[in-house]
Write a structure and sequence with these properties.
This protein starts with a helix and ends in a 5-residue tail after the last helix. The chain is about 35% helix and about 15% strand. Strand 3 and strand 4 form a beta hairpin. The protein has three domains: about 60 residues; about 200 residues, 3-Layer(aba) Sandwich (Beta-lactamase); about 150 residues, D-tyrosyl-trna(Tyr) Deacylase, Chain: A, CATH 3.50.80. With about 475 residues, the chain is α+β, with helices and mostly antiparallel strands. The chain has twelve helices and eleven strands. About 10% of the residues have low confidence.
Length: about 475
C-alpha cells in the first residue's frame, strides 16, 4: 500500500473515532438530566425531553473538528419553592387558663344576666382552663342527647343495626315485628343517610309469599320490644307536637302529616302496620285484616330490613336534634345491656355506663334520653368529660358523638347562628350541640383555636333574663375562645 493511501486510511479511522467519542460524550452528559426527570425532580415547568432529543452532536465535517472541545452541558438551577399554602403545625402548647378566663369574662351581652354552669378543657391533656359552677347540675335541654348517644354507642357499638322483620307461624298469617329502628321510613328517598323502608320490606315479603303461592294474608303487628309507658311522665302534655309516643315500631317517627313539629299518632305501631298493608297491596298481596299480635320467638322469618348503623343514627340525631330518635336509642341502650327497654331501666343503664366511662358526676340526674325533662340535671364538667372521652383515640367507638356535632354557621341547629360581627370568627371552626327549652339555653362541643389548641367546652344557662341574649352570649363566648392565642 502506498504511503498516500495509508495516510488517507489513518485520517478516515481518526475521523470515525472522533465521531464515536463525541456521541458517547454527549450521551454521558445527558444522563443526569434524564435521571432528574425520572425521579420527578426536574426544574422549571417544561416537559421532560426524550433521550434522543436531550443532546444532539453533529458529525464532524473535517479533520480539524477532531481537536474541538465539546461544549459542556449546563446544569439547570432549581427554582425557589413556593410559599406553603397552610401554616406549619405548631407544637402543642396548652393554653393559659388565666388568659382563657379573661377571654370569656370579656364577653358582655345586655340581658344575659343568668346563672350558668361552664367548663373548658384542653382535650389532649384534660387540663381545666375554665370552670364556673362546673360541678353543679343545670338543665341541659338537648345537649343531653350527647350523653345518651355516648352510652348507646359504648354499649351497642357503632356498627350495630336494628331489624324490622316479618314472620309467619302459620300459612296465610304474617306478623310485622318492630325492632326499634328510629328511622324506618315509609318509602325510599335521596336523603342521606339511607334508611330502611316499609316499601322495601313489603317488596321482599311479597316475593317470598308469591314464591310460596300465597296471595292473601292476615297481618299482625308486634311492638312489644319496648316496655313500660310510651309517654314519659316527666313531660308535659303540650310536648305532643315535639315528640311522639316512643315505639319499637313506627314509620317516619309517627307524625300526622309531614314531619315535626306537629301532631303525632297516638298509636305509631298501628300506623306502621297500616302503611305496611298498603305497601303489600301495591305488590299484589291482599291483606284481609290488621290487628295487634305477639310474634312467637320460633316463628320463621319471611323478610327483614336493617337500619343504618348506629353511628349514622347518632350523627343524624345530634345534627338535627331529633327527640324521637334519642328516646329510641335510650331504650335500646337498656336492651343492649340485657335489661327491658323501659324508661326506668334506661335511666339506670345509662347512668351505669357513663359512670364506667368516668363521665357521671355527683350533680347529675337523668330522666329521659332527649333532654326534654326539666328534672334532668347535668353539670358542665360532666359534659366536657364526655366530649373528651368521645374524642380520645382509645374510644373510636364513640367518634360519632364528635362527628355529629353541627359546624357553626354551616349545618344543623347551628346553621343560622354566629351571624354578628363578634361571633363570625367561629363559623366553620366551632362544632357543637345546642340545647333549647323555655328559660334554658345550652351549648356543648369542641373548637380548634387560632393557636392550634383543641378545646372541649360546655355552657348550660338556666333562667336568663332574655333568652335571645343568652343565645348571643353563647355564640360570642365560643367565638372568643376560637380566637384564642391564650399562651
Amino acid at each position: 500500500m502506498s504511503p498516500k493511501r495509508i495516510a488517507l486510511v489513518v485520517i478516515a479511522v481518526t475521523a470515525a473515532m472522533v465521531v464515536v467519542i463525541s456521541v458517547i460524550a454527549g450521551a454521558i452528559a445527558a444522563l443526569p438530566r434524564e435521571n432528574r426527570y425520572a425521579i420527578g425532580a426536574q426544574s422549571g415547568d417544561s416537559p421532560a425531553s426524550s433521550p434522543a432529543s436531550t443532546q444532539s452532536t453533529p458529525a464532524p465535517s473535517s479533520v480539524s473538528s477532531a481537536t474541538a472541545t465539546p461544549t459542556p452541558t449546563p446544569t439547570p438551577t432549581e427554582p425557589d419553592l413556593p410559599d406553603p399554602v397552610l401554616a406549619a403545625v405548631l407544637p402543642r402548647v396548652v393554653p393559659d387558663k388565666t388568659a382563657v378566663a379573661a377571654k370569656i369574662r370579656a364577653v358582655k351581652v345586655k340581658g344575659m344576666g343568668a346563672s350558668y354552669s361552664g367548663s373548658v378543657v384542653e382535650v389532649g391533656t384534660g387540663k381545666v382552663l375554665y370552670a364556673h359552677n362546673a360541678n353543679r347540675g343545670y338543665i341541659p335541654a338537648s345537649t343531653m342527647k350527647l350523653l345518651t348517644s355516648t352510652a348507646a354507642l359504648s354499649i351497642l357499638g357503632p356498627d350495630h343495626t336494628f331489624k324490622t322483620s316479618v314472620v309467619s307461624a302459620k300459612r296465610g298469617q304474617i306478623i310485622l315485628v318492630g325492632g326499634g329502628d328510629p328511622y324506618l321510613a315509609r318509602k325510599a328517598s335521596a336523603e342521606y343517610p339511607k334508611r330502611a323502608t316499609i316499601s322495601g320490606l313489603a317488596r321482599a315479603t311479597a316475593r317470598r309469599l308469591k314464591h310460596d303461592t300465597i296471595k292473601k294474608v292476615s297481618l299482625g303487628y308486634d311492638s312489644s320490644l319496648f316496655k313500660g309507658p310510651a309517654w314519659n311522665p316527666r313531660w308535659p302534655a303540650f310536648y305532643g307536637d315535639s315528640v311522639s309516643r316512643t315505639s319499637a315500631l313506627w314509620v317516619d317517627e309517627g307524625p300526622i302529616g309531614f314531619g315535626a313539629p306537629g301532631m303525632r299518632h297516638r298509636d305509631p305501631a298501628k300506623q306502621a302496620a297500616t302503611a305496611f298493608a298498603d305497601a303489600l297491596s301495591k305488590q299484589g298481596i291482599t291483606v284481609t285484616a290488621t290487628r295487634r299480635a305477639h310474634a312467637p320467638k320460633s316463628a320463621p322469618v319471611v323478610a327483614k330490613v336493617s337500619s343504618m348503623p348506629l353511628e349514622r343514627i347518632v350523627e343524624h340525631l345530634i345534627k338535627v336534634s331529633d327527640n324521637d330518635a334519642a328516646e329510641v336509642i335510650y331504650r335500646q341502650a337498656a336492651i343492649g345491656a340485657g335489661k327491658p327497654g323501659s324508661i326506668a331501666e334506661a335511666n339506670k343503664v345509662v347512668r351505669a355506663e357513663l359512670s364506667k366511662l368516668g363521665i357521671w358526676g355527683a350533680g347529675m340526674t337523668i330522666n329521659d334520653g332527649s333532654g326534654l325533662a326539666r328534672q334532668t340535671k347535668v353539670p358542665a364538667d360532666s359534659m366536657v368529660k364526655m366530649l373528651r372521652v368521645a374524642a380520645e383515640q382509645r374510644h373510636p367507638e364513640l367518634r360519632a358523638v364528635i362527628t355529629g356535632l353541627s359546624v357553626a354557621g354551616v349545618e344543623g341547629s347551628l346553621k343560622r347562628r354566629y351571624v354578628d360581627d363578634q361571633s363570625l370568627a367561629a363559623r366553620g371552626v366551632v362544632r357543637a350541640k345546642t340545647g333549647t327549652l323555655n328559660k334554658v339555653r345550652s351549648l356543648a362541643g369542641v373548637v380548634r383555636t387560632a393557636d392550634g389548641s383543641l378545646l372541649a367546652f360546655a355552657f348550660l344557662i338556666n333562667n336568663p333574663k332574655n333568652e335571645y341574649a343568652a343565645m348571643v352570649w353563647l355564640d360570642r363566648v365560643t367565638a372568643a375562645i376560637s380566637r384564642c392565642g391564650c399562651r
